[in-house]
Design a protein that fits this description.
Elements: H1 2-29, E1 32-34, E2 46-48, H2 67-74, E3 79-84, E4 87-92, H3 101-110, H4 119-134, H5 142-153, H6 158-173, H7 178-182, H8 186-189, H9 191-196, H10 206-212, H11 217-231, H12 236-243
Parallel strand pairs: 1-2
Antiparallel strand pairs: 3-4
Length: 253
């Protein structure tokens, strides 16, 4: 009798163990996914969804053919390449002072987004020549330059952004009125300044080269903001501060 009773108790226990295991498996199989930090995450038979990983955003690759490229490929630009002993340099086939700035200045600014030769070479040198010779003809064209400048900054291409910042500095200092004329457009121009102001994109072996050639993005942004404030009039600082909260007035230093 005692042996039979012990055997019965053993079978009963093993049956209970199997039943509990089956119940446990059943509970695990019906667990539902819920969002983290939600009320459902504290309920029974729930499993918190794992956080999704975001991929690092790569440099933006130019998605469109710029107007500058279209004009260049058609041969409609009054420029050609001159090969000198000091390197390549563009030359104008017409007197630069007789050009229609309302057409050609926005066109060359649009070419600042280009990353390939010969487009970028022609566009960058062309912009510099036009700004040096423009004088009073630049001011009326300012509204047409905002979108090309914004597009160039939004490429997130380090070389393009650095060149565009230098061109923007040259633009501001090309005439006394331009600095103030740009103030209403800060909301379109400065978001990328705020995004990259505290980022040093040149590290390690490249830092000396970048400082030598003034291609350190963070330094160029600070320098450009200072120029915008100095030439933008009394409303410049408050508008810069609104878009770039970390900026400190150059007049306080």
């Amino acid at each position: 009798m005692h042996t039979f009773s012990a055997s019965s108790n053993g079978n009963r226990r093993s049956g209970q163990t199997i039943s509990s295991m089956r119940l446990s498996r059943t509970n695990q199989s019906v667990q539902r996914l819920v969002e983290p930090f939600s009320i459902q995450s504290m309920q029974v038979n729930t499993r918190v969804r794992e956080p999704t990983t975001t991929k690092k955003k790569k440099d933006f690759i130019q998605p469109r053919a710029t107007s500058f490229r279209i004009y260049f490929d058609r041969g409609d630009l009054p420029i050609k390449m001159a090969y000198l002993c000091g390197g390549e340099k563009i030359s104008w086939t017409v007197d630069i002072e007789k050009l229609d700035y309302s057409l050609y200045l926005p066109l060359f600014f649009d070419g600042l987004s280009e990353t390939k030769h010969p487009y970028k070479t022609y566009a960058r040198q062309g912009v510099q020549d036009l700004l040096r010779s423009g004088g009073d003809k630049i001011y009326p064209v300012i509204p047409q330059l905002i979108i090309p400048i914004k597009n160039a900054l939004n490429t997130r291409n380090l070389d393009v952004m650095c060149i565009t910042l230098k061109v923007l500095q040259q633009l501001v200092m090309s005439s006394d009125l331009i600095g103030q004329a740009l103030v209403p457009f800060y909301r379109q121009l400065l978001p990328m300044f705020n995004a990259y102001k505290v980022k040093n994109l040149n590290c390690g072996d490249k830092i000396d080269y970048s400082q030598k050639n003034n291609t350190n993005l963070g330094d160029l942004i600070d320098e450009t903001l200072t120029i915008l404030e100095r030439h933008g009039g009394e409303d410049a600082f408050i508008n810069i501060k609104y878009m770039v909260p970390t900026y400190e007035s150059c007049y306080l230093n």
